[in-house]
Amino acid sequence: MENKIYTLPELPYAYDALAPLISEEQLRLHHQKHHQAYVTNSNNLLAKLAKSRAENTEADIKAISKEFSFNLSGHILHMMFWHSLRPAGGKTAPDEELANAINLEFGSFARFKKEFTQAAAGCEGSGWAALALDTLDNRLFILQIEKHNVNLVPQLKLLLVLDVWEHAYYLDYKNDRAKFIEAAFSLIDWTNIESRFARKAA
How many Å separate Cα 89 from the centre of its chain? Predict the structure, then answer.
């Protein structure tokens, strides 16, 4: 059986398109080095499994499963992250159905932004903040994801993700994560997020 090979997707915009809020140098490093590493590691782990099976040798399934979960989750989250952003100048908040759902759950968009910012700023070490939809009862939640794969809930569909690993912002913002989070809110592609919400299914 042929192994599926993961590949690094192209960005949906030019490397300089998010400047000055995210510089070309920062975006290139993030995409070409860090995202690429998760793709490469996922493929290497699949190859390691395939070799073990072909040669009928023992494999450390526990270790491989843990590493694969971390790296493939990193790949998937980054793909979502790139499409959660767009060059500055678009709408700064969602409208219609998603706006109504945010108001119903959080009381207002301002309250949602405050809680999302707190989740992103409060990640210990490396992680993500995410807006997610519970597909069982159509309710929104904010997640604080540790690393790439800790604190995820199976039935929650991710709508918006924000990378707050230092590699996402350090060249531009040094250790000022809060300033990066505020800048990122100016780049959120709410049209894309609304489209994910409208599809509803996980």
Answer: 22
Q: Is 3.40.20.10 the CATH classification of the domain at 24-84?
A: no
| pLDDT recorded at residue 89 | 81
Determine the Cα–Cα distance for residues 133 and 151; give it in Å rounded to an integer. Answer: 15
Measured distance CA(158)–CA(146) in Å, rounded: 15
Position of tokens 């920062």?
Answer: 26
Residue of 164, 178, 150, 168 lying closest to 27 (CA atoms): 168
> What is the torsion angle, in degrees rounded to the nearest 10, for the CA atoms of residue 181, residue 193, residue 144 and residue 21?
-20
Cβ neighbours around 75 below 10 Å, total: 23
Ranges under pLDDT 70 in the chain: 1-4, 200-202
Gap between the Cα atoms of 138 and 159, Å rounded: 13
Interatomic CA distance for residues 110 and 19, integer angstroms:
25
Just give the CATH number of 96-199.
3.55.40.20
| Domains in the chain: boundaries | 24-84, 96-199
Q: Where are the beta strands (DSSP E) in the chain?
A: 127-134, 139-146, 156-163
Pair 150, 137: CB distance under 8 Å? no
Residue pointed to by tokens 């989750």: 73
Encode pLDDT of 126-145 as tens digits: 999 999 999 888 899 999 99
